[in-house]
Structure formats: C-alpha cells, structure tokens
Specification:
heterodimer, A: mainly alpha, Four Helix Bundle (Hemerythrin (Met), subunit A), 7 helices, B: mainly alpha, 5 helices, 63% helix, 0% strand
C-alpha cells in the first residue's frame, strides 16, 4: 500500500508537461503573483488614508521601531532557515533537514508572538481597528500578513511531521519547495510593510489642520 | 582574497559553496506549442531554461548576512534626522535590495526557470500599477478639493 502511494507520488513529481515545468510550481508562482496584487491593494489603501486620522493614537505615539526591527530580523532569519531546510532535504540529510524545518516553525511562532504582543499593547493604549483610520488600515494589513504567517507555520508543521515519517524525501522535495516559496513570499511582504508602515510612517502625528465638523 | 571571491562567484560542482550553473549553461526545453516558427522558438528559448541547481549553504549565509546588515542600516538611517526629504527614498531603495535578495536567491528565481520570473514580474507590474493608481487618485482628489 505504502509502495503504491510512494509510486503515485513519484509520478506526480515527474509528470510530463508541454512546458517542461512542474505544474504545481507554476500554480504556486501564479498564486503568489495574485497575492502581490492583494497586498499591493491593502498597502496602497494604508497610504491613501495615511495622516487622515482625526483622533489618536497616532503612529508616532504608538509604533515601537526597536521591537519591530527584532521581529523583522526573526522573519528574515526564518527565510534563511527555510532555504537551508530545502537544501538539506534535497541532499537527503535527514537530521539537518529536520533541524532547519523546525527552526523555521519556531522562528515563525516567535514572529507571531511579537505580533500578538504588539496588538495587545496597541489595544491597551486605546488603538483598535475602530479607533481611527490608522487603526483600521494598520490592523487589516498586518493582521492579514499575520494570517498568512499562521498558515505558513501550520503548513511547515505538516512538512516537519512528513519529514519525520519519511514521507518527505529528496525525490519529492518539491513539496517543501512549494511551502518555502510561500514562506519567502510572506517575508518579502513584511519587508515592504516594515519599510512603509513602520519606518516611513513612524513620525506621522496628528494632522496639522483638522476639518471643522460642527455647524 | 581573490580566491575567496573566485570560489564564491564561480560554479565549482558540488562543493560546499555549490553556486548554481547560470541559466544559459542549461539545455532549453523543446518548444512544443501549437504554432510558431523560428521567431517563436527563439522567444521560447529566451523565456525558458531548465536551471535546476540551487546555491549552497555558504552562499545563502552570505545573502542572509547581507539582508540582516541592510535591516540594521535601515533602522540606523531612520534614527538620523539629517536625511530630511531623502529619508523615504533611501529606505525604499534599501528595502528594494532586500526584496530582490529574497526573491532572487532564497526563492531561487535567479536559478530557476525564467518563466517563473516572467509570471512574478508581470504580477508585480500589475500590483505596482494598482498601487500607483491609488496614490495618484489620492493626489488628484487633493487637487480638486
């Protein structure tokens, strides 16, 4: 039974296509391309509403750049761990492959922990998605990114278990490569978010002129 | 020192550095589309290559250090107020370097089939166009007010 399953998996890995490319990899790149547009729209929305909040807390009062820099570093290093995991799985080095896959999972969980702490901190300071335009656009964008990271962590836990049970081997390492592409994509989205929201917008305060809303 | 760079930048088989072959050194898959003559075949050859090798751990370590240094540089630049109006363009350029570093090397686009680069680049252009359009609409709305 197991032999049949392995044989079927092997056939999926080496299927013949008119382009000579793996259909699964092509699908993943197409999905990532669509996700670029998805995140592009939300980042643009953040910038359109930048500086339009009429009430605080404003970015300069609440964003914590040192803490976010550390979480950015953690996510970058998780990408590094991911690329090493794929390398060692392809080489058939089981213990190293396992070590790096679980390192990615741990680093991903640490990043999510930073995000939970940040969101809690913001809520304690009175910033929620309903407080102002900054809160709405910030929580939607970073929350969606956090959702992507969570999916990536769950996917990689499955990969780690599959590797332990010998279901992830050098001949079907493309399974891990697809998860890796997704994980790296999450990383590049954060590179943009960190620059646009945290570094560029961190000095944004209250608007200079507040429109008169009364009669 | 020159040997170090030679080892880093040239393909040395299956060594620890194990830098991949360039796309051009790999055979092209045969064009099997329904239409086309030499012109289309040449285009197909340009668009495709089957570079399957990836770099080695040492190369990825260099890329990771590069990414970490740029992140540190970004945070340091952010703290310096003297950059004034140049601050945002500098930060955007630095994040672009990081973006390219991850996409080209960690995501293997540099080593992989060129078709994947084409798909991702096309979507990036569309995404950036949406992004710029939204920002332009914002500035036009300001002008009208």
């Amino acid at each position: 039974m197991t032999d049949i399953a392995i044989e079927q998996n092997h056939q999926i890995e080496n299927h013949i296509t008119s382009t000579g490319l793996s259909s699964r990899k092509l699908l993943m790149w197409t999905f990532l391309g669509s996700d670029v547009m998805f995140f592009g729209a939300f980042i643009a929305t953040y910038l359109v509403y930048r500086g339009k909040s009429l009430v605080g807390p404003y970015p300069n009062e609440i964003l914590n750049i040192p803490i976010t820099s550390v979480s950015t570093f953690v996510l970058l290093m998780s990408s590094f761990a991911m690329v090493l995991a794929l390398h060692y799985v392809k080489e058939g080095k089981k213990s190293l492959g396992s070590f790096w896959i679980w390192s990615v999972v741990v680093l991903g969980v640490i990043f999510l922990g930073f995000q939970v702490v940040e969101f809690t901190e913001f809520a304690l300071h009175g910033l929620t998605p309903r407080t102002n335009l900054f809160g709405t656009t910030f929580f939607i964008l970073t929350g969606l990114h956090g959702g992507h990271v969570t999916i990536g962590v769950i996917w990689l836990i499955f990969m780690g278990v599959a590797h332990k049970k010998n279901a992830l081997r050098p001949d079907n390492a493309e399974d891990l490569e697809l998860a890796g592409l997704y994980w790296h994509f999450v990383d590049i989205v954060w590179i943009v978010i960190f620059t646009v929201i945290y570094l560029i917008s961190a000095s944004d305060g209250a608007p200079v002129t507040v429109p008169h809303l009364g009669h | 020192m020159s040997d170090f760079w030679k080892e880093l930048l040239t393909h040395k088989g299956n060594g620890w550095w194990n830098l991949p072959k360039t796309s051009q050194s790999e055979p092209n898959p045969k064009y099997e589309g329904p239409i086309g003559g030499p012109w289309l075949t040449n285009w197909w050859k340009f668009l495709t290559h089957s570079g399957v090798d990836h770099a080695g751990p040492a190369f990825y370590t260099v890329v990771a250090i590069f990414l970490a240094v740029i992140t540190l540089l970004e945070v340091w630049i952010y703290t310096i107020k003297e950059f004034g109006v140049w601050l945002n363009p500098i930060l955007i350029v630095l994040s672009l370097f990081k973006f390219i570093g991850v996409v080209a090397f960690f995501m293997h686009l540099r080593f992989d089939h060129r078709y994947f680069t084409l798909i991702f680049s096309f979507c990036m252009i569309l995404g950036v166009s949406v992004f710029i359009s939204a920002l332009l609409m914002k500035s036009f709305a300001k002008t009208i007010q």
